[in-house]
Q: What sequence folds into this?
């Protein structure tokens, strides 16, 4: 038996509270509530992970640091798994900017990966930097014959939803309507055929056919 890949959204930041598009590294730090969320997540893991990684963003590094303190597993920063870059809309929190981002983001989930927010990344570019990291983690930690244990990767809501939709074939509108709260997870199990099975998406488990209206979370959830 191999372990799971557990993608964890970072704890709450002031950007999340203000509902702004905060994507550029290093970004904003955790709030006190975000730190408490990260501590709780680490303390409630059923077993220490085999390996613990985070993106280079400050909020992800801080979240991973609290998980490290709770589990004793050292956190390692890994490149390529930062949030979707929104370019010219960085730091914006107005309704129009949110609508532009969500329109582009929904298009990605529906198969049009060439679209991009003004001055930002396309879906192709997000996947091109993120998916090789996932494949490396699979090869090094989650292949048959290796010791068991989960791999935890602290990263970002919009990026991890797109990546999980791509890897596990979970379809919109579920993937676009179901945002992730801070420190919620998407859990992926490697299949023997080289694919992935999604066994958790936030508070949901398969089958992922839940008809839920779009949530009003911060735009990056």
A:
């Amino acid at each position: 038996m191999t372990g799971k890949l557990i993608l964890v959204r970072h704890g709450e930041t002031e950007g999340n509270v203000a509902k702004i598009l905060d994507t550029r590294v290093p970004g904003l730090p955790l709030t006190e509530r975000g730190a408490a969320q990260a501590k709780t997540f680490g303390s409630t893991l059923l077993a220490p992970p085999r390996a613990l990684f985070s993106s280079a963003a400050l909020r992800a590094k801080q979240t991973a640091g609290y998980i490290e303190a709770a589990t004793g597993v050292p956190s390692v920063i890994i490149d390529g798994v930062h949030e979707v870059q929104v370019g010219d809309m960085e730091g914006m929190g107005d309704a129009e900017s949110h609508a532009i981002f969500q329109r582009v983001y929904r298009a990605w989930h529906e198969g049009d990966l060439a679209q991009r927010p003004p001055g930002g990344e396309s879906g192709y570019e997000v996947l091109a930097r993120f998916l090789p990291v996932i494949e490396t983690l699979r090869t090094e930690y989650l292949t048959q014959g290796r010791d068991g244990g989960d791999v935890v990767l602290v990263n970002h809501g919009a990026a991890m939803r797109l990546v999980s939709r791509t890897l596990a074939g979970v379809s919109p509108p579920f993937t676009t309507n179901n945002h992730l709260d801070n420190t919620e997870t998407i859990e992926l199990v490697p299949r023997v055929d080289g694919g992935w099975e999604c066994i958790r998406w936030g508070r949901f488990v398969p089958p992922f056919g839940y008809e839920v209206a779009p949530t009003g979370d911060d735009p990056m959830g």
